[in-house]
Amino acid sequence: MPSRRSVARFLAAGAGLTALAACTPDAGTRPPSSSSSPSATSASASQTAAPSTAGQPTSPAVTEPGTPPPTSAPTPASPAAGLGQQHSLTDPASPWLVVNKHRPLSPADYVPADLVQPNISLAVSGEAAQLNSTTAAAAEQMFAAAARDGVTMTLASGYRSYGTQVATYNSYVASRGQAEADTASARPGFSEHQTGWAFDIGDGGGACSFQPCFAEQPAAVWAKANGHRFGFVVRYPWMFHEVTGYYYESWHLRYIGVEAATDMSAKGVATLEEYFGLEAAPGY
After folding, report:
1. CA–CA separation, 226 vs 233, rounded Å?
2. Integer distance in angstroms from the first to the last C-alpha of the chain?
3. Are 226 and 145 in contact, with CB atoms under 8 Å apart?
4. Of 161, 190, 199, 262, which one's alpha carbon is 20 to 30 angstroms from that of 105?
5. Would you place residue 167 in the very low, low, confident or very high pLDDT band (cuts 50, 70, 90)?
């Protein structure tokens, strides 16, 4: 397996750097650096909360995300099939929901009913500082455990509404064209951030936010090794972009529950698609 340092060098060389922006809350700008203040980040997020219709793409996948995928539970042959409690893969309120480029949210403008602001270190405010209540409680436990180990994490980007994703995606389309935008930003209705089950972390030192070198930071190293104990997985792992549709995002964590996350870790399964027996989704 390549070292984290080699991972960072590889990505920095240009292997899919545009796709790394799939989690970046502000499209068309550089990700927040160590000098970016939380207030600046949150202000930008709040400014994009209202969707802009100017220049909105006409792609049916954007304006009409389609019907929900037929699979509502893991396939019988999947690694997850042996767990005692099974959950839906299509219900947005389910911790096992799988959203990818083949599997839009239904409804497309879904809003979690239980959004809360977790009691953790925040680098953002407003909607971006919120998670659903289950994820928030697990995040509080994980951040506290990391702190006991001397690692400081921050919440760098949490919930993102459909309207915010419309503005973010449209900004990419306007500046780069739709083909490149689809490698850099999730289409509206296809983003994990909209579910409340996922969020991006930052390191307390402020270095390398939303950049390949974040994989080397203490927060990323700790989360990758320990996140499963609290129900989290690194949703877009190294070298699985042909399955997930996105290049390595060491900052993007997804809650699936302690039992499933621990089982994935123990079995060495890297992606939700493989774990739940779903097809790869490299593109729309």
Report:
1. 9
2. 29
3. yes
4. 262
5. very high
